[in-house]
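Quick check before the chapter quiz. The format below is the same one you will see on the exam, so make sure you can read both the input and the output lines.
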Amino acid sequence: MKTNTSTKNIARLFFACILILNLTGCLALVVGGVAETALVLGDRRPVSIVTLDRGIQLEADALISKQFQDNVNVNVNVFNQKVLLTGEATTQELKEQIQKTLSPIKNIKSIVNEVQIGIPSSTSSRLSDSSLFTLVKTKLITTTDVPGNSIKITVEAGSVYLMGITTELEAKAAATVASKSSSNINQVVKLFDIITEEEKNKLVNVSTATDGSKP
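Here is the expected output.
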């Protein structure tokens, strides 16, 4: 019990540092959509999967930049080999082409294409998304029984997308907390990978054993 409390306090302190960096402009945010890189502390993904996810994102970003250049404004976020695409494309054809271009990337399990048809979002819209991101992340990281550090948040045009490895109860709780974070949130989209309570306990036990903490 002391270990869990200590871990949560460390997580809160770590996130506070992240927020400070964010406010000073030292933490990069995705242009046209605000997203976080899931924090290693408390992340339920194996390190190998975290590495795969990073590789997928880098390759996807490079392909979009090379093949579509300024014709689209698309943000790529990856969690547990699931790819989320948000942003804008001027035509339905371009939206579909983006997904076809990324589909052959090795190690992708699924692609969720939430790209909207339209012009790139305005600066004011991006600032609003940044503010919503901070509100949602703060609420999740400080809410009991919600694995805030294992949830990846993306905010695009007032829509909040939640990715992570959670139980059904955790997923519902996280979505509820996110939706109540601000009246400016249009919708909360759950993209969780659901696990059982038994699987969660195994992950927690592995994490506790790895960090060398003692009861």
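If your answer matched, good. The CA atoms of residues 119 and 187 lie 21 Å apart.
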